[in-house]
Amino acid sequence: MVTTLVLGIGNTLLGDEGAGVHAARRLGELAGGRHGLQLLDAGTLSFTLLPTLENHDRLIVLDAAQLGAPPGTVKCFESAAMDEFLGRPRQSVHEVGLCDLMNMARLAGCFPARRALIGIQPEFVDWSNSPSDAVAAALDRAAGVALDLLDRWDSARPA
Length: 159
Description:
The chain has 159 residues and is an alpha/beta fold. The chain contains 5 helices and 5 strands; from the N terminus they run βαβαββααβα. Strand 1 (4-9), helix 1 and strand 2 form a beta-alpha-beta unit.
């Protein structure tokens, strides 16, 4: 069975910074056990995630990202577009860790052919247990983008 690792990245104590974690939780609720998902609250990332990544065929990362757009904007970067986005000047507070993790996966021979980063434009990053209204409203959109992506991947030939 094809499996997909979903990394929700962020610190949920810093308002919109936790958007990725909140969106991953929402995706889990909406997916209802479909698509062979393993959802993981990846916090602010670590190299210790490499063994987990090695055990999956596909990767979706949900994270707050500087998109240069209004708060709550959701954008998906798939495959080479994800690599290009991560190669740009810092767009996410976790980008260095994610970039490093992806480079380690390349070196270890477990770089996922099917991969995507779904970014959510934050409004604020400050002490708060909940996201801004704009980001809270975007969580269903981000989860929906992930579900659409999974449906497309499931119906396509293997990469």
